[in-house]
Each structure stands twice: as structure tokens, then as C-alpha cells.
């Protein structure tokens, strides 16, 4: 269950720091992807430590700052670094970015992550449009007493990843000449990477990419009526696909190599969204 108090306190802190902010879009940057914010015009920066609901981000590769920025004329809140369920501090830190976005009138959120690829034909550095997800976390942030802020008691999830946004992302890929794959993102709780047997099983269940985030954010955003788009950076082949161990170092290094492509793609995506009148 999500405690509203720290979320309301976060909203007050952000309104105080950025009294004129009216973000139309939000973006959450996953592991190693914080640098993408530098491609945006910066209107303000607020460290997570000053946003009560989020607190200091605890994972290497996650910068831990809210950047109030703009690109293609679209005012955007960029969350440089995310909080995860596996950090064990509850759902508030995960939910706060969505709470802020919805409360300040944003229409959509773009979720990015680093993920393991389960398709042997794919390569580290590939980028995947998230078409749908499978929640293997065994929990959801919407458990507990119903809070109408997060939509109806039984949110529909037939169309979480907005079709128009997916099409705009695909167009941005073509225009920026960044190849894009598409597939299903599969979330476990982490913080362990998967076993090879789990990866084989999950692939059979429909996973194209495996990771430890994004799904709770997508569920909350969708329930609250925000449109959702998602992109996975395949930073490594999932466990057992190659005969080698997985490390956070590899995840981080691949995300750095993919950065130039991601920046190009995302700037073009914003242009597409601007054109589409978002
Ligand atoms: N599994 C889970 N999470 C991940 C992976 C992975 O292989 N790579 C990056 N995040």
C-alpha cells in the first residue's frame, strides 16, 4: 500500500523549488542512463534528497536528481535515476515520480531501463520498444486500501503501453536511424539476476527482456490515467544465454556505449511528440 503523506510532501517540495513547472511529459531514466538528461534544455535541478517521497537513490549508476527540462518545446520532468522495490523501502519511492507527474498535470511518462536480453539473436546495445509486460514480482504497488488517485479499484491493463506513443517511438527510430526491436518486458523483484533456468522458463512464457523495474511504474501510471511508453536498453544477454557471469559493471558499460543512440532517439521522439501535439 502506498502512503500518501510522503507523496504530498514531495509535491509541496517540488512546487516550492519549481513554482512555475507545468510538465507535460515525464521520463524515468534507468541504470546508467542518467546522462540522457543532458540532451535537454535545463530549467532546474532538484536532488532526490530534497524530495521527501523519493529520498537519496541507492544504486550505483543512478544519479538521483529531478531535472526540470525542455526539448522540442515540451516541458519535461526527467527523473535521473529510479528507486526500486528491491531496495526494501516500500512503494512510496517508486510511486513518487508518477504522483508528481499526475498531480502537476502531465499527460504521459516515458520509462527507460537496462535489461537482459533473452533472445539469442539479440545483442547487448540493442534497444527495445516495450509493447507489453509480465509482472513476475509477486507483488503490485496497488495492493491494499483503494486510493482513487490511482484510478479504479480494478484498473484495466489491456493497453498499458500506448499505441500512438509506440508508433511515434518507431518513427523516431526510423528518422534518427536507430534500429529498434520490440518485445515484452518481464520484471522480477531482483536484486539477484536470474538463474539460467529462470531465463529459459521466462522466455517460454513470452519474455524478450528481463529486469527489475518499470512494471510497477507502468501499472501506477496506467491506473492513474497517464499514457505510458517504455524503452529497454539490452545491456547484456540474460543469464545462461552466453557462458559467462553477469555483472553490474557490464550493464553499466553497455548502457554507456548505447548512450549516443539513445540520446538521438529520444530527442527525435520528443520532436515526434511535439508534432503530434502532446
Ligand atoms: N536481469 C535483470 N535485470 C537486469 C539485467 C538482467 O539480465 N540486465 C540489466 N538489468
Query: Could you estimate the helical fraction of the residues in percent?
Result: 25-40%
Please, how many domains?
Answer: 1
- CATH architecture descriptor: 3-Layer(aba) Sandwich
For the record, the CATH class is Alpha Beta
What shape does the CA trace take?
globular
CATH topology: Rossmann fold
- The number of distinct helices, counting runs of at least 4 residues, comes to 6
Distinct bound molecules? hypoxanthine
Write down the secondary-structure element order.
Answer: HEEEEHEEHEHEHEH
Poorly predicted regions: none
Total strand count, please? 9
Rg calc: 17 Å
How do the strands line up in the largest sheet?
5-8-7-6-9
Largest beta-sheet characterization: 5 strands, mixed, barrel
Average residue-wise pLDDT: 94
- The separation of the N and C termini measures 32 Å
- Give the percentage of residues in beta strands: 15-25%
